[in-house]
Amino acid sequence: MGIASQDALEQLSALIDQLDAKLKHTFQNMHQGNQKHTLARFLKAREWNALKANKMLVDCLNWRMQNQIDDILCKPITPANLYRGIRDSQLMGLSGYSKQARFRLVFSVPDCTWGVPVFAIGAGLTTFDKASVNYYIQSHIQMNEYRDRVVLPAASRKHGRYIGTCFKVLDMTGLKFSSLSNLKLVSLMATIDDLNYPEKTETYYIVNAPYIFSACWKVVKPLLQERTRRKVQVLDGCGKDELLKIMDYASLPHFCKRNGSRSSRYSSLDSDDCYSFDHPFHQEFYSYIVQQAKSKNNESLIKHGSLHVDVPEPDPEGIEIINTIESELHKIGNQNGVTRSLSGLKIV
């Protein structure tokens, strides 16, 4: 960390010391004993401008308080069959952890990406059609909070160093025009992540990318900050060979272990399907939330019903990106004669 970065960190730390007791309490729940690293994430998201980072962080803390995010892991989605439906239609899960790079083992170079969680996301085949928007937003935030409060601290303890980020492998299999109605919900989740969980992803690996993704990525990429562009890697095919450089075979997402591009729509037949509610990760995740609700000794927490969480307004960069994607999709639709099916599409 350079001198300017250290100065910004000290300035932001001094500003945070002025918070009232309630905001400080939710900040403690958020940073989990890693205040310095958390402040650095918000600074990085605002180009190391302490005043802008302070506003972003205070807005985040107010959002957490107003929407009771500190207690969201005490609110299981019930009944269990409803949650199973969400898992079948919001495809994501923990497939494993990264490995230590071979050259670092040989030369004894510290490896900061060893033991980092690997999350798989079925972006192309996610349908969001088994529950209300509120349930999907709740599930998404719960996954973020479980990652930050349970998965990452456990990885840090295991490896004896702070681990605060993850890798994400996004499978674009099945992405087509009929999936575009999901983009509004995806953009809501992205806004929540950008403003309240910044800099939590080490690298995004895109696999099985069809033409529609490549066309949108071509026009969106120039709009992104260089810091963000460097995080996105579009791999050939299922990306197996490249991904094996950072993780063992056992940690590969199930859709990267197949020969060819067989659709992950049939992943429920695979024993290692990390999307499934029956996968050990999701069983532990759901059991954790149920136990947290019981420990609160509040029956109202486990009653049927979704939470309503306010979604912050996206920043100007996010709005421009969404508008650009929308424009490109309509352009592709015109070229392929599907203008009629796209005429009602409005992402935001």
From TrEMBL:
**Which InterPro entries does UniProt cross-reference here?**
CRAL-TRIO_dom, CRAL-TRIO_dom_sf, CRAL/TRIO_N_dom, CRAL/TRIO_N_dom_sf
Highest rank taxon of the organism: Eukaryota
CDD domains noted in UniProt:
SEC14
Q: Where is the CRAL-TRIO domain?
A: 115-253
Membrane-traversing stretches = none
- Protein name, please? CRAL-TRIO domain-containing protein
**Species this protein is from:** Zingiber officinale
